[in-house]
Amino acid sequence: MKGYPDLPPIWWVGSIAVIYLGKWLLPWLHVGARVLTLASWILLGLALLLIGWSALQFFAKKTPIEPHHEPKALIVEGPYRISRNPIYLALVMLTLASALGHGSFIGLLSALGLWWVLDRRFAAPEEAMLLKTFGTEAEEFLRQTRRWL
Question: If you ran DSSP here, which 8-state letter would residue 79 be given?
């Protein structure tokens, strides 16, 4: 859609909305268990820490954090040593945390859908832009670091 802000957090909000709609429309597809709630809180905390740590890398390098903007620096430090897309990974973790917290089978599908959108719509084009902008340095980074985990 032209004029629509195509940003990962908007897609993430959509994935969370699917969980709430599913709980409202199909309540029998939800379970409750304390262990799920505990796992949800742990995953939530880890995801928020990962987003913060990752965002700090952008600010330290003075490069745009928004997708579709040309990077000014190649970030290979911090969480980027483990994953090429730690913020996207954290958004999927947040959706999984919500799915677990709500005991939502639909939420698991929503998390999978979010992962697919982030992978195809954002991660792949961003990697092409990294290659175009940073050449062999980006090739090395892409070869040494997994896209997700």
Answer: G
Which long-range CB contacts under 8 A does 120-128 form with residues at least 24 apart? 121/6, 121/11, 122/8, 122/67, 122/85, 122/88, 123/84, 123/85, 123/88, 123/147, 125/68, 126/67, 126/85, 127/84
pTM of the model as a whole: 0.93
Cite the DSSP H helix spans in the chain. 8-25, 34-61, 86-101, 105-117, 124-134, 136-144
Name the phi and psi angles at 104, rounded to 5: -100, 115
Specify whether the CB–CB gap between 44 and 94 falls below 8 A: yes
Average pLDDT, the chain: 94
Residue 113 in contact with residue 107, Cβ under 8 Å?
A: no
